[in-house]
Design goal:
The protein is an alpha/beta fold. It contains seven helices and nine strands; from the N terminus they run E-H-H-E-E-E-H-E-H-E-H-E-H-E-E-H. The structure holds adenine.
């Protein structure tokens, strides 16, 4: 069982990506627990303020320390967290290796950034790891948190069946996935390779590996370096 607490000013953004398909099935099976926390519940004053102007001047707003400290410390009083992750474009780039690592943890907090970012003191005091999902800027960390949560969930034992096995996903063995086909074997003259219909599973495995290596060499030679 893995528990993920996601802190956000727009928790509704997480409802759909984390409420369907494999992630929902994992929740239904009791293999993962996902809680979202609306940071505005911890906001300051009658307007439940969570952001403020940047000290020193400059455009945009910064998320304040008090609501985030209150929310995270409240959670940490209840249980020990293995990681407190801040989703931000300047974090470490997320990859399958990181997904594998996180899927072995028990309790994870994810903090979604908004506006110009969060007060630096939060990053120094509370955050244990900073993750980016790519070199582009999203309007907030929610979609990134959903991406990371999805990638983690499918790796939790029991979440997906042998047929869907996560072990054959792209990246899991350091290679991109080989091509796949389904019926019909002939569509308007476009044929499935004969070998895949032959029933010779040893040869099929060899073909898949060759194809995976070829595609990886063509598209992502950087993956073959390690
Ligand atoms: N928040 C905004 N952009 C992001 C990104 N690329 N990755 C993670 N969190 C983000």
């Amino acid at each position: 069982m893995i528990r993920i607490d996601i802190i956000s000013v727009q928790p509704a953004l997480l409802d759909s990506p984390l409420g369907h398909s494999i992630v929902q099935r994992a929740k239904d099976k009791g293999l993962i627990d996902i809680y979202t926390h609306n940071l505005k519940d911890y906001g300051i004053g009658p307007h439940k303020q969570v952001d403020d102007y940047v000290y020193g001047g400059g455009a945009g707003m910064v998320m304040r320390v008090e609501p985030i400290f209150a929310c995270i410390r409240g959670l940490q009083k209840e249980r020990d967290y293995d990681e407190v992750i801040y989703l931000c474009p300047d974090g470490q780039q997320f990859d399958q290796r990181e997904a594998n690592k996180l899927s072995l943890q028990k309790n994870i907090i994810m903090l979604c950034g908004h506006y110009k970012g969060i007060d630096q003191r939060i990053r120094e005091e509370l955050i244990t790891s900073e993750i980016s999902i790519g070199d582009y800027v999203l309007s907030g960390g929610e979609l990134a948190a959903a991406v990371v949560t999805d990638a983690i969930c499918r790796l939790v034992p029991g979440v997906i069946s042998d047929e869907e096995s996560a072990l054959t996903d792209s990246f899991q063995d350091g290679l991109l996935a080989p091509p796949v086909y389904t019926r019909p074997s002939d569509f308007e003259g476009m044929k499935v390779p004969d070998l895949l219909l032959s029933g010779n599973f040893k040869k099929i495995e060899e073909w898949r590996l060759e194809q995976a290596e070829r595609i990886t060499r063509e598209r992502r030679p950087d993956l073959l370096k390690d």
